[in-house]
Specification:
Shape of chain A: globular
Order of helices and strands of chain A: EHEHEHEHEHEEHEHHHHHHH
Strand order of the largest sheet of chain A: 3-2-1-4-5-6-7-8
Function (chains A, B): Catalyzes the NAD(+)-dependent oxidation of L-carnitine to 3-dehydrocarnitine.
Keywords (chains A, B): Cytoplasm, NAD, Oxidoreductase
Subunit structure (chains A, B): Homodimer.
Radius of gyration of chain A: 22 Å
Largest interface: A-B, 122 and 122 residues
Number of helices of chain A: 13
Catalytic activity (chains A, B): carnitine + NAD(+) = 3-dehydrocarnitine + NADH + H(+)
Structural class of chain A: alpha/beta
Oligomer: homodimer
Main location (chains A, B): cytoplasm
């Protein structure tokens, strides 16, 4: 543990965030941090980057207002710098959102590490590279973490946080607390898995969708409608595991696995399923019990129903709800 | 085209629906049709079926009230019969929701076909069997269709409608119109694909989730949170295709594919991706243009932002929104 890998600053004293890379994701981070009242410095090598970034922030501002601006939050607190070094020189947290190219990420993180004050955590928005593979060229790899957001970062709460082999575990814990303080919803992973969690799940869905388009089995429009009119309504409320537990009726996940377990052998997707052996069966059932946190199946059904109705109403899909 | 395969009844004259099989899905159908004002006859061979069904309808009723009951809708319009034949004797539409066992479905559909008045469409709630494989033993296979709902059928609008090789196309068209009239959102498929559309998509996600649990890569709780705090919020508003188009920024899906296309080679899920050749690239890009229906990327971003904020507020995930 060196003095460059452990953040010394208290969360409430963090006021200055640097965003490096200001495309869709980096710009979304800029909007998020501005909305939460931070001073943001941003840098992006593209010639039209500043104009694009300011357009993105302007477009996001009505959403940020509805989400609730922090005291003092203002788009005027954004400074676009002409060099990477200027952007991070006084930063207390750095979020890197460069294109997904491993060589580029490696080199950029090494440059950021060299230019950022010691004791400041540097997070990468990478969609899937393990930090272990990206931190190779940095002098202080201990402060480099993955903080993987979802588009748009100012609106979708989730950030997946994970370190690499050479990351200081304290940097991972600090980053998780910082993101929570900055209004994000954090999942901290204890190991590096390509694509993390949510991207693995949506990538499986996306690949199956591409197979269906490639095979002429469904149109893009049908695929989108099949989600927004179907499982997507449930997934805003309750994840896929508890959702499926409710397909088991009063018997919950155990009954669902007894009933639909054989479907894992069906060609319902191009993805081969794992063997549903006793260990996996038990892990899923007890995992659902744990996730239910004492709520009974009837509680969960009532919660889902209230939630889906709220979503249907909020999105104008109930009769007479358009005016609400 | 025989007189037994073409529904003669006008949609507005359909008042009596039979639900055969009254578990989670069949019972959900019962609740849906009751809420929409139909007279429902139900049959299920389980000894405790009636008590379970009435509990399910009672539990669903507050949701049905909020969804908006049709004039005259009442749980009193439910009759549970002691034989299958009584249930369908006067039915104008039949929804079969028996367990997912092919032999059972085949035999049951043949029995239903024999007992149901001619000219009445019989739909199966099967999660994945092609009707071609289920209609083998029926005398009038022309009127047998798949009408695949999502749990719970009284709340999730989607029904996937598709016929088998021996189904009269007119029965498919009539069923699609009937379901729409009964308040469902219909996708009609022109071919049989195992698992239809939405189940293929959620099955890919589910299998990947099982792999992650089996490998100890993520807990059930993390998997669920990664969806409800992440992509699930978007999917209630906009399907996976248009959602990903917005990851391409002002360049839309074409830019997204240019940027993230290489990720299809990454081990981000256990599902192998199709080759992103020019034909697939073009099909996805033009499919998204088509699905956007003239909305620009900026329009879609604004729509998504409004929708996600509405969902966050409706589900109590915005500060101060709990009381709303």
């Amino acid at each position: 543990m060196t003095d460059t890998s452990v953040p010394a600053t208290a969360l409430e004293d963090i006021r200055r965030v640097a965003c490096v890379g200001a495309g869709v994701i980096g710009g979304g981070w800029v909007a998020h941090f501005l909305g939460r009242g931070y001073e943001v410095t941003a840098w992006d090598p593209a010639p039209d980057a500043e104009a694009r970034l300011r357009r993105l922030v302007d477009a996001a501002w009505p959403a940020l207002e509805q989400l609730g601006l922090a005291p003092g939050a203002s788009a005027d607190r954004l400074t676009v710098t002409s060099t990477l070094e200027e952007a991070v020189a006084r930063a207390q947290f750095v979020q890197e959102s460069a294109p997904e190219k491993l060589g580029l990420k490696r080199e950029l993180l090494a440059r950021l590490d060299a230019a950022t004050p010691s004791g400041v955590v540097i997070a990468s928005s990478t969609s899937g590279y393990p930090m272990t593979d990206m931190q190779t060229d940095a002098v202080s790899p201990g402060r480099l973490i993955v903080g993987h957001p979802f588009n748009p970062p100012y609106l979708i709460p989730l950030v997946e946080v994970v370190g690499g082999d050479r990351t200081d575990p304290e940097a991972v814990r600090w980053a998780a607390r910082f993101y929570e303080a900055a209004g994000k919803s954090v999942i901290t992973m204890d190991r590096e898995v390509p694509g993390f969690i949510a991207n693995r799940l949506q990538e499986a869905l996306w690949r199956e969708a591409l197979h269906m388009v490639a095979g002429g089995e469904a149109t893009v429009r049908d695929i989108d409608r099949s989600i927004t009119e179907g499982p997507g309504l449930r997934w805003a409320i309750m994840g896929p595991m508890l959702t499926f537990a409710l397909a088991g009726g009063e018997g919950g996940m155990a009954h669902m696995l007894d009933h639909f377990g054989p479907s894992l052998k069906s060609p319902w997707t191009r993805l081969e399923a794992p063997e549903l052996d006793k260990a996996l069966y038990d892990a899923v059932v007890t995992g659902c019990d744990d996730a239910a946190d004492g709520r009974t199946i009837a509680d969960l059904v009532a919660e889902r129903d209230r939630g889906v109705i709220a979503v249907l109403r909020a999105t104008g899909r109930l009769p007479g709800s358009g005016a609400e």
